[in-house]
Amino acid sequence: MDDLEQLVAAELATPVDSRVSTLAAAIAAKHGSASRAVLFYGSCLREMQLDGLMLDFYLIVSDYRAAYDRRWLSVANRWIPPNVFYFETTGLTAKYAVLSEADFHRLNGPETRSVSVWARFAQPSRLVWSANERAQQMAIDAIARAAPTLLAAAGRVDGEAPLDWWRRAFALTYSAELRAERTGRAGSVVDADPKRYQRFSRPAIAAVSAGAGSGSWARRRLEGKALSVVRLAKASATFAGGVDYIAWKINRHAGTQIVIKPWQRRWPLLAAISLLPRLLKSGAVR
């Protein structure tokens, strides 16, 4: 493995709360032999107390058809990846997104303008379950693509310090999705563990292809926000309690006090559509 892959492999192997590993194994078991790897990511990585939080996972599968009993779920996952589901066990609650190994590799690389996957996996994550060594190595290979893709997409500014490059890159990706975080949240991703980003800087920058540029961020923002709305609509069909989770996340990150009404739980898609204009106007979602 090269230096960047070694850093990724070591980070993925960092121990986690045993309940997280148990939950990950249960998610994998739900999808049987199609399951290849389960990755734990997001702000909960930094939390010591997990009770009352919604943990974030990605389930990597060999094939969408093999992962589901219902064909429409495999079609939806292939056309608009990922599918997102609610899960709970061992007293913890979680949401997990499903991607095939092929899509996970592709969506961590520069061949896609969508920031959703490579922006997340340029940040710390943990490999909390894997089917075998081959599945583990494929996860490492895919995630090692994320940081160079992020930095290349942002483009380098002459004289810019590496940590500032990371901060600016994350700020750009936050602008390309519907986000519920306060202003400055993108910078806090780096500031929460600057030593980590210092360690990753040299090999990640070395892996940026010569001549790689930022491309059109205006186009990324337009496509990204539109795709966020489509994914939100799809999640209303796959994610039990989805509207409550959306409200919880917005309240947690934006400091709002959204209270979900009974009719909104019965009609989550209509609820999301009705909430979105007000949230955009107030700045709770950007």
What does this protein structure show overall?
- With 286 residues, the protein is of the alpha+beta class.
- It contains 15 helices and five strands.
- Strands 3-4-2-1-5 form a five-stranded mixed beta sheet, sandwiched between helices.
- Helix 5 runs parallel beside helix 7 and helix 8 crosses helix 9.
- The radius of gyration is 18 Å and the shape is globular.
- It starts with a helix and ends with a helix.
Query: What is the percentage of strand-forming residues?
Result: 5-15%
The biggest sheet amounts to:
5 strands, mixed
Q: How many individual β-strands?
A: 5
What is the helical fraction, as a range of percent?
Answer: 55-70%
Shape: globular
In the CATH hierarchy, the third-tier topology of the largest domain is known as Beta Polymerase, domain 2
Q: Which stretches are low in confidence, meaning pLDDT under 50 for 5 or more residues running?
A: none
Q: How many distinct folded domains?
A: 2
Q: Main attributes?
A:
15 helices, alpha+beta, 5 strands, 286 residues, five-stranded mixed beta sheet, Beta Polymerase, domain 2
In short:
The chain has about 290 residues and is an alpha+beta fold. It contains 15 helices and five strands.
How do the strands and helices of this protein lay out in sequence?
Blueprint: H1 3-12, H2 18-30, E1 35-41, E2 54-61, H3 64-67, H4 71-79, E3 83-89, E4 92-100, H5 101-107, H6 116-121, E5 125-130, H7 133-143, H8 146-154, H9 162-175, H10 185-191, H11 194-206, H12 217-238, H13 242-254, H14 262-266, H15 268-282
Parallel strand pairs: 2-4
Antiparallel strand pairs: 1-2, 1-5, 3-4
